[in-house]
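Weekly modeling sync, notes
Attendees: S.R. (lead), two postdocs, one rotation student

Agenda item 3: backlog of single-chain predictions. S.R. asked that every request posted to the team notebook include the full sequence so nobody has to chase files. The rotation student volunteered to paste the first one in as an example of the format we agreed on. Action items at the bottom.

Example entry:
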Amino acid sequence: MIVSLLSRALMMSTPLLYGSIAEVIAERTGMMVTAIEGIFLMGAWGGFVGTYLTGSAFIGILMAMATGTMTAAIYGIVCIFLKQHQVVTGTAINILAAGFCTYFQRVLFGIPTSPLKIDPLSQIAIPVLSKIPVIGPIFFYQNSLTYLVYFIIPLSYFLLFRTSIGLIIRSTGENPEAVDVAGINVNGVRFVVVLLAGVMGGVAGAFYSVGYLGMFTTNMIGGRGWIAFAICFLGNWNPKGAVIGTVVFGFTEAIAIYMQSIGGGSYFPNELFIALPYILTIVLTVCRKNFNVPAKLGVAYSKEN
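Predicted structure, as returned to the notebook:
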């Protein structure tokens, strides 16, 4: 049972890892991608539609990346180039995304009598490694999106702290004037990382529709984009911290799903188990005392003449 629970915890951590690492990179440049919930939802919708219409999960994930990037581009244009408030803009885009998905889902498919289904991504057993006791079934019997995130985790850390690109990203959020003086386009850097957040957020959303449930509903994200956003804060804007926080949340969500599946609702309300990850978010946010906040987080940059 423990092995199964841990395997599910890793699976449920996957989309949060995509979202929180993307948020870490973006916020290091000063951009709070508060549209992350809408990006997740657009990715879930795009992934489902692409897969349902073509029968190819690969095309579905590509469409999820496209819809996530489109949503992030709107956010980036409004906040970076039009200098609008990041939180207000993100909230508006999240509402817009919900309405967009609801409307076009009905335009494309009407109101079906039963939920439309696609085949979710299958779990892939890695030869030899999947046979290792305990570790094998947990880490090496997952779907392709989970395997991909194994590479993204060390790559994101290496990018941020071991490359000149990472230095530019971090400097853009700490001292954009110095970056500008060095001849680097601050707003260009910010826009590129927001688009990257859109790509990764789109994949995260597609995980729910294409990689896990095999269906789409407009409430399927259920605030998980905001959890990924919170994990960035709790992880102190570092991919290592994001990984730790994500695994904790994934484990909590796996426990909630397990308790519901065994009928834990006969002892406690099912709503309590559903709320566990969100309760944990609030508790950990309150308990966290020190934050290494990027100096210019949420501050629009205007080049001085």
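Discussion: group reviewed the output briefly. The mean pLDDT is 91.
Action items: rotation student to repeat for the remaining queue; S.R. to check formatting next week.
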